[in-house]
């Protein structure tokens, strides 16, 4: 199917140029999406729920999906959240937008992990806040030092309502925060009153062992808001996700004017998802995608080890990304034009920091391409790297 409608207007956000192996986008391969099973669930949902599937939905989300989410979260992460702690959203980005609208005021200071998901910066900045990086090291957030940062900022008269992070199979690093640091971070949040916004969108994409417990599962009510999404596990075009939080926050979201006016978010799709889960399609598709992504990860890792032996990286145990540290003085932003001229692309590490840093790193995504194309992309990147180094040497002599 064409990526454009008959009138020439685009159908989708991303168009991969046929001559480029674009490793910059965290997107699934459209051919891997569950078209037949989703069609079956959509028809089944309409038959099961009748006209109620196309009516205004319940504010928090339809009961069948909320019930399934509660059961599954309890089974996979411990401590099933009851219905009053779940709010269905139009994806994790929408959930972050809602949380920011509810908790942030213009002029606030919001902490963000360093590095972390770059488009979250945009969502938060839309609310007129100042973004400040957390204290961190190569293994992630330093809870004690971050707590000291919160206290210092507040002594300066700044309001610091929340901290955003992706602690499990993070974007861009693919790493997970160690269990000890998770415990310390939750304790710091509870002590300081800082709300942790845990973007947990990659949790289900674990390839080697189960994901570590979420921050939410370890916290008292109110300390953590957890964002979940079906974009990575089923399909991004569904625009469907959820958040789990204290009942007071869920109630506040349900009382917002746009919910009162329009009812629950993405109601018909939410009921289709409930049917997709009831039929067992969610579990089957998730297992297929884990197998697929594990193979793609392994292919990318093998290619990097073969063709770029001087770069440093940690093999991600889940998620979609490989985070490379370039050798010596080589910088990702300077290398990018050479890479794109050689038919491969990536995201420089500077995208993932709110300060002017990170240019020694780059992010490769393995979600979109088959193993042979991932290997070809790395071969092209290695060639581009050799050219960039040769040019730099020539210019310095």
UniProtKB/TrEMBL annotation:
<feature type="domain" description="Aminotransferase class I/classII large">
    <location>
        <begin position="21"/>
        <end position="380"/>
    </location>
</feature>
<dbReference type="InterPro" id="IPR050859">
    <property type="entry name" value="Class-I_PLP-dep_aminotransf"/>
</dbReference>
<dbReference type="GO" id="GO:0008483">
    <property type="term" value="F:transaminase activity"/>
</dbReference>
<dbReference type="InterPro" id="IPR004839">
    <property type="entry name" value="Aminotransferase_I/II_large"/>
</dbReference>
<dbReference type="GO" id="GO:1901605">
    <property type="term" value="P:alpha-amino acid metabolic process"/>
</dbReference>
<protein>
    <submittedName>
        <fullName>DNA-binding transcriptional MocR family regulator</fullName>
    </submittedName>
</protein>
<keyword id="KW-0238">DNA-binding</keyword>
<keyword id="KW-0663">Pyridoxal phosphate</keyword>
<dbReference type="InterPro" id="IPR015421">
    <property type="entry name" value="PyrdxlP-dep_Trfase_major"/>
</dbReference>
<dbReference type="InterPro" id="IPR015422">
    <property type="entry name" value="PyrdxlP-dep_Trfase_small"/>
</dbReference>
<dbReference type="GO" id="GO:0030170">
    <property type="term" value="F:pyridoxal phosphate binding"/>
</dbReference>
<dbReference type="Pfam" id="PF00155">
    <property type="entry name" value="Aminotran_1_2"/>
</dbReference>
<dbReference type="InterPro" id="IPR015424">
    <property type="entry name" value="PyrdxlP-dep_Trfase"/>
</dbReference>
<keyword id="KW-0032">Aminotransferase</keyword>
<keyword id="KW-0808">Transferase</keyword>
<dbReference type="GO" id="GO:0003677">
    <property type="term" value="F:DNA binding"/>
</dbReference>
